[in-house]
Write a structure and sequence with these properties.
Layout (H helix, E strand, L loop, with lengths): L2 E5 L5 E4 L5 H7 L2 E2 L13 E6 L1 E4 L3 E4 L2 E5 L3 E3 L3 E4 L4 E2 L6 E14 L2 E7 L13 E5 L5 E5 L9 E7 L5 H9 L5 E8 L12 E6 L3 H13 L6 E7 L9 H9 L3 E7 L9 E2 L2 H8 L7 E6 L1 H13 L7 E5 L16
Parallel strand pairs: 1-9, 17-18, 17-21, 18-19, 19-20, 21-22
Antiparallel strand pairs: 1-2, 3-10, 4-7, 4-9, 5-6, 5-8, 11-12, 11-16, 12-15, 13-14, 13-16
Helix pairs in contact: 5-6
This protein binds flavin-adenine dinucleotide and FE2/S2 (inorganic) cluster.
């Protein structure tokens, strides 16, 4: 049975099918709600439940009032009234599932693999800089990886995958991949994207392979001759973890609007650059944050600390954009909905 979902304080309402998450139903109806992992881990999609009963997988029945219903994991058991952090009207996303062929694998650092995947000849998939795809594992589970290529290069994808010890995809699958192997991917997902009409200066704050979506965003700004000021901070433990640092260094020497600050938390004696937690360098360099858009991506501990310290330093909450690389293999299967 289909249930009706109303958005509190608006005239927005949409139908939610029995096996649909509230997030999926909203998208299908053309309403964009905040989300990141879609796996019930990052809490970006948390919304108030003002009225009704929902079922959240891994948590069971949730009855109103509740502050923290995860819409990416919630199905409707009755008509619902929800209070998400934001809602905007938009086109329902046109996602595609593609068979992509491994064209090339390089290892710019011992624990980072760069995968070049190509679609079948003549196929292209549109996406926005900063978005991610899902890779399907043999048992149907999925993992999220951000596109590192800019959107105008859309006949395939470039992924930066950091090896997690014991990781099913990042170690077990990636170590066995060879040129010509096939992977099933679905894209695009995510709202970690730059507003093309804004001219506010951008601060990109990344750790590890969080550089991947930053690279896509910067190469897109270059392609579009955008010209707004962009400052990239790339945090890592040691200089060898900055696996493609030559690239942002080249951008910095070529484009006057671009600055690059690498920051190490465990530097060796030869390092003469910035040290400490990467988000603290942003706070130190930008005492006036109120006119900036900040995009933080990578280690969840960094994105959490950055959110807390940057908001305390005056950054308006709506200008803090975040894709925390939470483990994306923890998503349990959705429990079947029990509409009443
Ligand atoms: C929106 C989004 C975008 C992402 N983009 C990227 C990307 O561009 N590049 C990239 O390298 N990763 C990215 N990730 C993380 C990625 O999706 C996987 O979670 C990660 O690669 C581990 O998958 P796995 O199958 O190898 O490990 P799993 O088999 O899922 O996990 C193995 C073990 O490692 C733990 N674990 C998993 N991930 C981590 C972690 N990050 N840190 C510490 N322990 C962990 C698990 O809890 C488990 O115990 C992204 C995540 C999200 C949510
Ligand atoms: S998007 Fe729902 S918890 Fe991450």
């Amino acid at each position: 049975m289909t249930a009706s979902v109303r958005v509190a304080g608006t005239d927005i309402a949409f139908d939610c099918g029995p096996d649909e998450t509230v997030l999926d139903a909203a998208e299908r109806a053309g309403y964009l709600l905040p989300y990141s992992c879609r796996k019930g881990v990052c809490t970006t999609c948390a919304a108030g439940l003002v009225d009704g009963t929902a079922r959240q997988s891994g948590r069971g029945l949730v009855e109103a009032p509740s502050e923290d219903l995860l819409l990416c994991r919630a199905t409707a058991c009755s008509s619902l009234e929800i209070a998400p952090a934001s809602v905007t009207r938009g086109e329902p996303p046109s996602r595609r599932t593609m068979t992509a062929t491994v064209h090339k694998i390089t290892r710019p650092a011992p624990d980072v693999a760069v995968l070049v995947l190509r679609y079948p000849i003549g196929k292209r998939v549109r996406f926005r800089a900063g978005q991610y795809l899902t890779v399907r594992l043999p048992d149907g589970d999925t993992r999220n990886y951000s596109m590192a290529n800019p959107p105008h290069r859309n006949d395939g994808v470039l992924l930066h995958v950091r090896g997690v010890p014991g990781g099913r995809f990042s170690e077990q699958v990636v170590s066995g991949l060879r040129r010509g192997d096939e992977l099933t991917v679905e894209l695009p997902f995510g709202g970690f994207t730059v507003d093309a009409v804004s001219s506010r200066p951008i601060v990109l704050l990344v750790t590890g392979t969080g550089f991947a979506p930053a690279k896509s965003i910067i190469e897109d700004l270059i392609q579009r001759r955008d010209g707004r000021p962009v400052h990239l901070y790339w945090g890592a433990r040691t200089s060898s973890d900055l696996y493609l640092a030559d690239l942002p260094s080249r951008w910095a020497s070529r484009y006057p609007w671009f600055r690059f600050t690498p920051v190490l938390s465990e530097p060796d004696a030869r390092w003469s650059g910035r040290t400490g937690p990467v988000h603290r360098a942003v706070v130190d360099d930008h005492p006036e944050l109120s006119d900036r858009e900040v995009f933080a991506c990578g280690n969840p501990a960094m994105t959490d600390a950055a959110r807390s310290d940057l908001l305390a330093a005056g950054l308006p909450p709506e200008r803090f954009h975040c894709d925390a690389f939470v483990p994306s293999g923890l998503g349990d299967q959705l429990e079947p909905a029990a509409h009443q």
